[in-house]
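S.,

As promised, the zinc ion run. Input:
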Amino acid sequence: MRFLRLAVLTLPVLCLATPALQAQDLPAASAQADPSVSHCIAPPEAGAPGGESHGLNLDDLDRTVKPCDDFYRFAVGNWLKNNPVPPAFSSWTSFTMLADHNRDVLHAILDEAAAKAAAAKLGSNDQKIGDFYASCMDEVGVEKAGITPLKAELDRIAAISSLDTLQKEVAHLQRVGTGTLFRFGSIIDFKDSTQQIAAAFQGGLSLPDRDYYLKVDDKSVALRNLYQAHVAKMFELMGDGTDAAAAHAKTVLSIETSLAQNSIDRIARRDPEKNYHKLSTADAQALTPHFSWTAYFSEMGIPGTANLNVAQPDFFKALDAALASVPLDDWKTYLRWHLIHSAASALSSPFEQEDFNFFQKTLNGTKEMQPRWKRCVIATDQTLGEALGQAYVAKAFPPEAKAAALKMVQNLRAALRDDLSTLDWMSPATRQQAIAKLDAIDLKIGYPSKWRDYSPLQISRDSYLGNLERAAVFEHKRDLDKIGKPVDPTEWGMTPPTVNAYYNSLRNEIVFPAGILQPPYYDPNRDDAMNYGGIGAVIGHEMTHGFDDQGAKFDAKGNLRNWWTPEDLANFQARGDCIVKQFDAFEVEPGLNEKGKLVEGESIADFGGLTIAFRAFQKTLEGKPRPAAIDGFTPEQRFFLSWATVWRSNVRPEYARVLVNTNPHPLGRFRAIGPLSNMPEFQKTFGCKDGDPMVRPSEVRCRIW
Ligand SMILES: [Zn+2]
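Predicted complex:
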């Protein structure tokens, strides 16, 4: 469902895991989960709720591999063999499995809500989730409608007759959920984290990243040709003749390529300083003489906006030049493409299937589409997440899970405080600031204390696309209404059933949705060792994000401000460079390695989080009789086995390429072993010898926290 991928401009928000496929026009580190490709068909696996084991599943191990040679294979080798990626998925991991299970829970809730919606109070959340889901499930109605629900929008584009009306239409399309030209929304001011400001980010592409338009190797060229053929096919489905459709596809590729040429890359997008250029409206206007910000703000319903963060000024300069030079008819073609592209998955099957064929099958290697009910569950979660989320937590989130997570956060925080207090490479001045930042980290567990109010949003059963459009307008207005106002500290960036977690640098907060507080991450019925190696390390990961290469640039209040002495900063950066080199060396397939600089923050967080979780776990053992081995493994060994279980993953090669090129999270197999091979704690636990593959030589071994 691409229709609701709104401008969520939360650049310095770092989540735990790849939120399935990221929309190309969302920030690289967006917390916004877009599970539209974490599809499924297979039943929940062992380890997920309902599976046979809440502890370690011994059948998952591959004992033909030595733990000191390749701990990932040892811990989950048989799981990898026995759990190929199901046809409707691009990857199959602990995350996608649990998300798939959560979808079953949501399915039951939505089936019931749909059956009872007519009797529910009009305007209530129950009526809205029930009717929204039912409108999506109305396959006959969607098929019968074909492209007619888009007719009014297509007519508007056809009526564009000047640069002014073009700009108006761009604003309109953004409001109804079609990303065009650039992204716009509200964001917390990087340098005054109490305030929301307007922000404009580069955007306007359809492929996952600018590099897809620019690279000239054979594979990239072949993929671009397939993309152009797909765009042509979509124009044909809209009624264009074959030649016209082909010419239009060429135009789209040409415009998007020029936007790509003027976009900054993924690594630069991780640097907050490079993405912060707060300008007065007059200064922004000087940057783009052919694009009127005043007219745009009026169209958006925010006429008094005095300033904005033009995140990538060079992109907007180039965009302005393009507005002046590209013929109006070409822009109309470009808008028509983006409209059909964003709406395709909500239209009749020829559109939906063709969209799937390129964006899922070709790009990610996914073999088949999810069943309709699952697509509709995902769409409801994306559209009415906090209405559906209330029903979800009432049904599936026990208060004990919240209490346990809270206790672990306290223990993890204490362990990190001990570490910061004793770290030998940090001076007292920096240490004091670091501890103040740690103590100030805010915590959210399970679900929001204040739920989103959907009362202005009308949902009815008669048109799925109509519901999506109204929901996009509602969400867009909700977002823009924040501009110029103080930050709402209760707001959440993920819905409650989400299997993920995040750290927000601008709020200095860590957030754990109810959806992840389940096996294999957390289980009240298993020992501390497994829970600390699972959710404990997840908590440590999010906490450590406050001190990774990006998070460390923000202070305790969430402001972009250096609080490091020059020596400490240089020392910290050198330690980060060690991680960059380690991940640069991980080979994904011949000719493609992880990009160390892109995954630096996530890898620092994995390493720091696991280290802190191990210490917090050891604290729980103090003053008690030592627990006996279970299944032949000591508590420490079970801790590390639990960690590997979190990162087990089968990924289709096509999707692995997309991730490595665009995503700040390394692949699971490298996340599992990267930190361990730096940790003396791991070496000791499994009795590995110097020189073993899982033990990095001391001269290249990394250590930060
Ligand atoms: Zn992370």
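The domain at 183-346 is CATH 1.10.1380.10 (Neutral endopeptidase; domain 2). Residues 182 and 202 are 5 Å apart (CA to CA).

- D.
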